[in-house]
Amino acid sequence: MEVKDLTVLEKASLLSGNSMWGTREIKRAGIPSMVLSDGPHGLRRQMGAGDNLGMGESKPATCFPTAGTVACSWDPDLAKAMGEALGREAKSLGVNIVLGPGMNIKRNPLCGRNFEYYSEDPQVAGHMAAGLIEGIQSQGVAATPKHFAMNSQELRRQASNSVVDERTMRELYLTAFEIAVRQAHPWAIMTSYNMVNGTYANENGHLLNDILRKEWGFDGMVVSDWGGSNSAVAAAANGSSLEMPEAGFDSVRQLAKAVKDGNLAEADLNARAEEVAKLAKLTYDPKMDPDGNLTDEQKRDHHEMARRIAEESAVLLVNKNGRLPLSAGTKVAVVGDMAKTARFQGSGSSKVNATRQENILELIEQGHAGGLELASYSQGYDRHGDMNQDLVDQAVNAVDGSDVILACVGLDERSESEGLDRSTMDIPRAQVNLLQALGKTGKPLVVVLVAGSPVSADWVDLCDAVLYIGLSGQAGASATLNILTGKTNPSGHLAETWPKSYADCPSSGWYPESERDSIYREGPFVGYRYYLTAGVEDLFPFGYGLSYSHFTYSNLALDEKGASFTLTNDSEHDGATVPQLYVQAPEGGVLRPIRELKGFRKVSLKAGESTTVRIDFDQTTFRHFDTDQDSWQTESGDWTIMIGSDARTMELTGTLSVAGTVQPHQADPALGAYLTGKVKEVTDDNMTALFGHPVERQGAISTFGPNDPISSWKDSRSGLARFIANFLSKRERKQEAKTGNPDLNTLFLLNMPPRAMSKMTNGMIDMAMVDSIVRIPNGHVCKGLGGFIAGFFRNMSANRRTRKELNHE
């Protein structure tokens, strides 16, 4: 039986989940159910009811380094190997679909979920994601790149509208997804919670039909983020296949009625149902055990792989006078709570129940640290607390018998999590005070920095060496010690710019947006595109990373297909580095950053070895999106081609004449401050020129609707609604103060619009009941409660009838 031969109700039933992590099956049509699982850097396989925030228990799985860390390897082949391991573990744990990789562009360093995303640049994000996708799907498991698209902040994430001009959206925020889709052909893709230019991403026809399906040729399944579906009918009409989790039968009835009434073409319903059925059959494996666990061999082998990935991804930021590597016999004073209790992943839906855990202190004590000898250990700081001078004094007093201080510092668990954005780029003040005190001891100071995204580091001049390990996964401690002792030569390069201070960030003046409309006022000037064009100094540039080796570049040769050059390791250490290809457009052309990354290679060389490196151009190298013609164009003329060791340091430069599709034409003078990249000086008129129309914000809420977050109820004229909003806010603050961790469940509720209740309650609440709930903040408490109670019984009755009809009873 084919999908088109099913009843309308059966086809509609395929478009929503059957549980928190499962889809519906239709046995008579041979359509099996599928299990979906979070897993950008490790499977979070929950049994039973489960949750979408990482709070409930999950089966043990390998916790690999997070995407923000793996990106620093600049090695898509490494990402592919990691994906293969994730695919194998998915098979063992009974998972058909892995919900990852996360690949949103890092617009601002304070985004709470940046540790789950690769880069500020679409080339790095796109190619790293493509590698992971290819690896996962090589095992017969679907990968699901996310969140499509423009998901840039956690605050109000289910009720935010990302307002962006078409060029910036196409060239910066969508190009990463395009690279991944065209190269790796993912079988599924996940939409974001937010609206894009006024339309929810999960029902945005411009994104899903015009661009994803028609332009890029994607023919797979589109799934909503959990609770991220707004209208099931609009989603089906505009290219989204499956809403998750179980939304009950309300959406099923809405879809069937829309077909009956002519408001949804049955061809669209058929297409969406076919996409779900196709993936269910593609990923079905009769040997897969839904109650399975990892084998001992997988646990061992994948732990070793996690260590190798962490080693390849760590970035040596500072190494004064060759302080590193440390030689065997060095006596180290280990300082820092994170050296004893490692932090190696973020909080939220990506949190993995790791099969093993390591810490630096224990490995040194056990003699697994390349010959380093433990002179002392001091906690140094209260991980979640205020300044404690006694801990600082103890640390300072304990370093006397050491040759070097090894301090492990960074962001704590509550700083980086799904559901909330960081409030500052600083590491805790207690840790900065500790480093300042240690710097005064006269002992060499080596810092291991733990964080999933950039931090302010005005303390860096105190250090003899700084090794940034990111969020390095369960084997991060041994990987760190291998680098510190020279067993491994560091080769990581930053995948995002580290500003000197948060005030230097291009979007610092308007991020995060607390109201509905988040206007991407900075346009294309994100990350290094801004710092270089506007002439703003950074702390560490995009693409930066030190090595124990030294590399030289020579003999640049350009042709119409790409660039070739000679790379030499002229040191006594085997090592690897990342040559980066940047381009600069002909003078007098359209608005662009001063230069942009268009290719890269991870290259390993023996000591004294030379090789010829080739980086080819592709369809993204010279293009820009012409909004007048609604198409991609290339400007003819002399393009500057550069090979850099980072975004600021150009090692080789040449000129290539390109025969494009259009002649350069002068950028509109009305763009004003955009022409110099100085986006902090942009006026409303400049924005109008960039967007092609005036940009207006939504006014103050006068009537609360189903898509206004519960947090906005604090301004309601209803005392009950105000009480609910304030109670949840107080509960979240109290829980964080008590545990040192964010209360993700309460944050989810605060950010949640009421309509999500109909998507997250297993069918107990339908949209008619949501409409009654919304009456409460609008001052009609009795009518709202009465309508909700009546709707509850009406919905129960309707669900029984729908269930019987689907079961052909």
UniProtKB/TrEMBL annotation:
It comes from the Bacteria. GO terms for biological process: carbohydrate metabolic process. One of its GO terms (molecular function) is beta-glucosidase activity. Residues 577-647 form the Fibronectin type III-like domain. Keywords: Carbohydrate metabolism, Glycosidase, Hydrolase. InterPro entries: Cellulose_deg_GH3, Fn3-like, GH, Glyco_hydro_3_AS, Glyco_hydro_3_C, Glyco_hydro_3_C_sf, Glyco_hydro_3_N, Glyco_hydro_3_N_sf. SMART domains: Fn3_like. Homotetramer. Belongs to the glycosyl hydrolase 3 family. Catalyzes the hydrolysis of a non-reducing terminal alpha-L-arabinopyranosidic linkage in ginsenoside Rb2 (alpha-L-arabinopyranosyl-(1->6)-alpha-D-glucopyranosyl) to release alpha-D-glucopyranosyl (Rd). It is not able to hydrolyze alpha-L-arabinofuranosyl-(1->6)-alpha-D-glucopyranosyl (Rc). This is Exo-alpha-(1->6)-L-arabinopyranosidase. It comes from Bifidobacterium [indicum] DSM 20214 = LMG 11587.
